[in-house]
Amino acid sequence: MDFEYVFHSSGIFGYGEEGDFTYWSFAHFAPLIVLALAIFLVYRYREKLRNWKGEENFRFAIGLTLILIEFFYYCRLLYVGNGGNGKQLLTKLPFEVCEWAAILTAFMIMKKGKSLFQCSFYICLTLGVIPWFMPAVITDAGPTYLRYYHFWLEHTLPVFAVFYMIFVHGFRPDYKQVYKPFIFLGVLAGFAIPLNYAIPDANFMYLASGTTGNSIANVLPQSIPVRLCLFIGILCVLFALISLPQIIKQIKEKKKTAPPDQT
Fold it and tell me: Domain total for the chain?
């Protein structure tokens, strides 16, 4: 018996029209305002949260939510397809930075993993926030579509989790362990690059030639080797900038503990 799968791309689970979400609108800023407020409340009540009997369950709820967000994304793809634009669902394989950042952060907050925290801190607070500025993948999904809420939860909840562990559990980034996120991203790119060549229209990690909507990645050159080198350079700069406060603090502490000059 022949079986034909029919996608349902209309309705709240599906897609709207291009322009349903517009940059720099209230719908753009509202999730970031909510995130800032949530981080402030965590900082304000960090002592109460640390001593709260349900704190462990709260962390597990955040981690589980992050995992379910990713699970929901692929369930939704099976329901609505890939927007009716003729592209294969293979272009949606899980080889994107933000997807893995969410998964890493989920296990980090549930397990209170300090090693995972180093990866989550550097990835979430650098590459993870870039889509905030030009979220090209949801220009056809405004606040009346679930895709809008999925996108913002996927890109803000990991950042919330990182700050939660900083304020409530005293986790601190260590620039000497910056090699860990580098290794992780290198392994991910090792899968993404050959898949970009093998799958038509794939652009995992934005390392393939071509554009992806009205996104920041469009400013990168079309040459794949040049794009890869530029990506590595940008990553080094971002990691250096986010490490700078730690380095400055360490230098100041060394100066305080250094013995006085006897000359």
Answer: 1
